[in-house]
Design brief:
By secondary structure, the chain is an alpha/beta fold. Helices cover 43% and strands 17% of the residues. The chain has one domain: Sugar-phosphate isomerase, RpiB/LacA/LacB (Ribose 5-phosphate Isomerase B, Chain: A), CATH 3.40.1400.10. The longest helix has 13 residues. The mean pLDDT is 95. It has a five-stranded parallel beta sheet with strand order 2-1-3-5-4, sandwiched between helices. β4, α4 and β5 form a beta-alpha-beta unit. The chain has six helices and five strands; from the N terminus they run βαβαβαβαβαα.
Length: 145
């Protein structure tokens, strides 16, 4: 895993900037699709490009950040090849990767600290999908119509 797409709205700007530093210091290439400002913006404008990058394999995984994490997650999950998980604790991050093969982490900036967000990102990146009994379930997530 080398390339990470990241996107955010105005509520996630400061978190995104800190996470980019963390990721680049660890040797990752970061594709920044988020706003770098705190002026109000529409999150789908910044989340769809992250989902596109992950879906097209231009990025290995994605990180999306908005106030609650909900809107960002809902937007990303409109893409057929995306499994975005809204996580607010370490256990959810771990299970999202192990059981659901999540390929985008959605962080609720208004409900977790930057320290927690950094921990989530590190955990998300090092946790592997278990496959096995979970593989069949994950295969059924994508809409078939």
């Amino acid at each position: 895993m080398k390339t990470i797409a990241i996107g955010n709205d105005h509520a996630g700007t400061s978190y995104k900037l800190e996470l980019i530093k963390l990721l680049e210091n660890k040797g990752f290439t970061v594709l920044n699709f988020g706003t770098d400002d705190e002026a109000s913006v529409d999150y789908p404008d910044f989340i769809h490009p992250v989902a596109d990058a992950v879906e097209s394999k231009d990025a290995d995984v994605g990180i999306i950040i908005c106030g609650s994490g909900n809107g960002a997650q809902m937007t990303a999950n409109k893409h057929q090849g995306i499994r975005a998980a809204l996580c607010w604790n370490n256990e959810l991050v771990t299970l999202a990767r192990q059981h659901n093969d999540a390929n985008i982490l959605s962080i609720p900036a208004r409900f977790v600290s930057i320290h927690q967000a950094k921990s989530f990102v590190e955990l998300f990146l090092k946790t592997e999908f278990e496959g096995g009994r979970h593989q069949n379930r994950v295969a059924k997530i994508a809409a078939t119509c």
